[in-house]
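Sample intake — Mechanosensitive ion channel MscS domain-containing protein
Collected from: Brassica oleracea var. oleracea
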Amino acid sequence: MEKPVSRRIRPRKSYIEKDDLLRFMIKEEVDLVLPLIEGGETGKITRNAFTEWVLLVEEIDLLTTKFLKLDNEKVFYPNATLISKPISNYYRSPDMGDPLYTKR
């Protein structure tokens, strides 16, 4: 089982650097994502800024995908935008299904 992202970053640092991100992302992804994270332009990202940037997928619809931030803010992205962005799934959900009940 993979370690969570926060555990792959070297301990006892007050900020996250590009080299830390390269431990679990490819260079192209880091170059694309770094400017989107608060502090990325300086190359020193606080753990709080990184945590705020990480979004959880709550729902995927035909036209939009709904992400849930850690502060419970819901962020909607058009799927047309997301199709051109790298998306990683670090925690795969178990196979889910709906039970089928029949009357006898």
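Post-analysis note: Residues 11 and 89 are 23 Å apart (CA to CA).
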